[in-house]
Amino acid sequence: MSATTAPTPATRAGASRPVAARSGPSAARVRRVTGKVIASAVALLIAAVWAFPVYWMVLSAFTPNARLRSMPPSFWPASPTTTNFEGAVTGTNFASALRMSLAVTGLTVVAVLLFAFLAALAISRFRFRGRTSFVITVLVVQMLPAEGLFIAQYKMLATAGMLNTVVGVSLFYVAAIVPFTIWMLRGFVAGVPADLEEAAMIDGLSRSQAFFRITLPLLAPGLVAAGVYAFLQAWNEFTVALVALPAESAQTLPLWLRGFLAASANRGVDWGQVMAASTLIAIPVIIFFVLVQNRMTSGLVSGAVKG
Amino acid sequence: MSTAAPDAATRATTPQATHGVRRPRMPYVLLVPAVAVLALGLGYPVYWQVITSLQKYGLAQQFGQPPEFVGLTNYTGILTDGYFWSVAGKSIVFCLVNAFVTVAIGVAVALLMRAVPTWVRIVLQVGLLVAWAMPLVAAVTVWKWLFDWRTGVVNWFLTQLGATGFDGHNWLAEPLSFFFVATVIIVWMSVPFVALSVFAALTQVPDEVLEAATIDGAGPSKIFRWIIVPMIRPVLSIVLLLQIIWDLRVFAQIRLLQDSGAPVKETNLLGNYIYELGIGRQDFASAAAVSILVLALTIAVSWPYVRSLLAEDKS
Questions:
Q1: Given A10, A45, A125, A263, which is the most exposed site by the fewest CB atoms within 10 A?
Q2: Please, where are the H alpha helices in B203-250?
Q3: Which pTM does this prediction carry?
């Protein structure tokens, strides 16, 4: 659909009136064009409002703090600097928080992919007693909110002496993320017909060869999408981390950012450094997210969109 | 894109049966890791909370005294506590207001996407995606900076517009304006998902139908009410339901905003109340009881969504 040809499907679907347009008076055309211009202006304004906080975060991260404290604010890069990033990175605990986040996220992603893939294989390739109960359980537990569980999870880790450990917090992340990834992967696994694998076996491949050479490559996009989903969840998680990782030395990046702001507040917040810290956490996430968002959205509402 | 998966699922049904007969133990073995992690990470905490909510579990028990079974005492204690009801009421009103505002704006943005040229729509989609992708803690932090009472852009902008009283105005000090800021953040974070999902559904509405309606003389509002809404109703209801479920779990946003010196008692929602009871006061019995109530409420609200997903699995 090109933007230059006049009656695109989009315009016809909107508030314009093809009846008036067909009869041909130029007044109607003018009205239609004006309507489109106004709609475009509103759309661009909304895009600006939604993107502004992200823009402001990055802009502030590169602006000297003295400039941020003075009014009126400047909306363009004025004397950009990287000192805010240096301040954030060399501040207390950044390195340990980064290590912790990478460890927790890495462990979570690997465990989620493995467990969810095996379970997806079971429910999409086999009919067995208890299958429906398992599917219902998966669907119900994925709705359970962290707020409704974190007191018990805290007590569990405290009793086991596993507060502030990577394994402890990862256990809860995996349990929280696995249900939705099983659901995501189920569709992908079902999309690779078992016939294909069997045909390869008739042609002389062993079962494991058939799996690694035929099935796995076809599943790769699904595994990547599920892996990125797990990465985003674990990397951004705040609520469970707050109770499971109370020690400052065991903080993940979201907890570190919160502490960084609190520490800065004691001396009148250094928003430049705080925004640099936020940018460091957000940028990898935004890149990953934009790459896979399509698949995640369709997973959530696919049942409804199906026409 | 979204239609591919269910089609594939139906195609694969036939070979499944033969597999099941040939290797009956295989599926159970494959499920072991997932079941184990769910039992340990979610099942046991739920079980612990049910048990603990029926016991006396305070500081004495922390120091090793065996807990004592007290039946539903913890529940009656909570349900007769006025503060619990004020927190629960605030949570539910906050949740519904946020969910409906989000869906209303999301649908409006989706309709707008249909009415504008492609390049404008792509700019809009990129703007929404970037906002959607922001990690929660970073997002709340940026909004705190925007609403900062001394040098925040919001106060500066309102003052420029000629509004008085916003110079040095502290948004987070009053419960009502605190919740307003929280709503702005949550709506900002949630609208992209709604708008993009509803837009995807709108693209399935055939142009011929809309054209026919226009020729028959239906105006834009009639077309929206009697053609578009009925055709996208499944997506609308799922999206609204998900928003309600997600807006019940706003512990993190509220907690992070409270850090800036907000009145905690007046701004607590259910999750924050549980945190305060459990971690703050070490009253695990009451915290467990409130948790169970929250879980029950969530499952009750989620049930239609679970049913719709289940129907998809069956097809």
A1: A45
A2: 207-215, 220-223, 229-248
A3: 0.86
